[in-house]
Amino acid sequence: MNHGVCRSLILAVIVCLSTVSFGASVEEIHTALRDPAPHPRLLLSNAELAELKARAGDDEALQRIASQIISEADETLNAPPLKHILKGPRLLTVSRNCLRRVYTLALAWRWTGNDAYANAAIANLQTVCAFPDWNPSHFLDTAEMSHAVAIGYDWLYDYMDEGTRNTIREGLIRHGMEPGLAAYANEKTWWVKSEFNWNQVCNSGLLIGALALVESDPTYANTILPAAVASLPKSLASYNPDGVWSEGPAYWSYATRYTAYGLAAMESALGTSFGLSDMPGLAKTAYFPMLTTGPTGLYLNFADSKQNSTRKPLPTLFWLARTYNLPGVAYGEHQLLKEQPASPHHLIWYVPAPVGGAEALPLDRYLESTVPVSVSRSAWNDENALFLGIKGGYNQVNHGHLDLGNFELDALGNRWARDLGSDDYNLPGYWDRKKGGKRWNYFRLNSLSHNVPLIDGNGQDPNGKATILRTGSDDDGAFTIVDLSKAYEGAKQVIRGAGLIGGRRAALIQDEFELEEGAALSWAMTTDAEITIESPHHAILSQNGKTLHVDIVSPATAQWAVASAEQQEPEHGNQGVKRLLAQVPAGATKVTVSICLRPEWPDGGAIPLPEVAPLASW
Fold it and tell me: CA–CA separation, 393 vs 246, rounded Å?
């Protein structure tokens, strides 16, 4: 791109962004950029590093994290060179490998002074800077690689000679900053206006790259930073009001990680995030992964999350804990790190374990959002506890499935009602999510795999919406009422109730249908358990030596049936997964389907089947 075109782009962006959202003007941002912190300025200064080293002398947790990072760096020294190989349309795996290598190796060098780590990091940087491009057609790849190269350039700035420094700088400009300028100047760049993860990843990756170069090439920071600060509120607003991430738990991790990268980079380089850290919901979002993790360690797993998505250490929680003074969040992360490995950002954003111990979290919590969720449990810190989670929202949400009203259930250390998660992103039409789109032909994405009602064997409208009407709780139990009426064609009203009953020793899922004309109905649940049909109304599920009794309370005409969830290639096979179906024959236009799920507790105590009560009385 020649300088004349570059200047035109800059002028166009600055004119469009004469005042940036959230209180920062372009002039204020430019003023901040005139006096950046010295290298290394991104995320971890030398002064902060020195404080961490001093603390490590008597902090065993910090010592353990540092040791793990160095061990990983030792393994990375022998990693094969990165190659420009696309997987489908993406270079993303290569970008992420580079990012992990650079953070690990450069941090190990900064911690130990061992030049082998610095030299290996530089070799990786030189390799990717020699690539023909960073695949800007799938801009996540470019953004993540820009992030990786910027961190290496910043952290290793004083170690590199001038020739090496220029090579890395020129690669970052050619493959990252120039495509970034073009993206912001193009009105068709959709992620600039997006509410979802692409917004945080692309904006943060680019602004980190620009901040690394601010003293040598200020043009990029003076343009990219105002554009990013104006764009980020569109996605950060998605956390409002209760910190839920509507793309599900896996994308919470991705989006929030890049939120932290971007805001932390601005704070460390410029001393301000221009008010973005004060966006509503950010101070609460640390609780989203904590509250939606069942006693099994599995998430309430909606949208395109991996199957059996398990709660693992999340270094972003350290950043959230230190930014918003959440010692209980830091404590929970420390507990996980006792058994699971740390990542470089656990060291970068380290928070000492608080002396106060665990935070007392509620047994029941409704989290408001465009995709609201409600969770209830019988206890915390008991792997055998009963846990029930349910979601509302809208089916057109990014990465969404046709799963409004989907529930998942844990008890006795097992997940009984489960979500299968995402399928292969490279399947034909995977992203064609319009009504009639091919996305909805895939089993894992449509209603036929989820724990939702079916009407005449049909699932939900791809344009469907669901509202959580109300929730309630007391010592004896908890409930959530979800209006699914706008999720099903041919239904006047569909209301689902889900709750814990009998002193929180059983769960009840009840669906009330008012149909335009009589139709066959199916109450459906996906499970890994072995299923035995004892009688038309009583099924026994067995898993890992534990037992769950599932009973049809209503209607009398319903009967249990079992189906396989297994599919043929190229879709995921779902080997061994089953569907438990309460099938109701066509006839009445008003039907209540009430299902009770009773774990067989070790003390032998069992609650009686409940009487059917209308949801209006819950």
Answer: 8
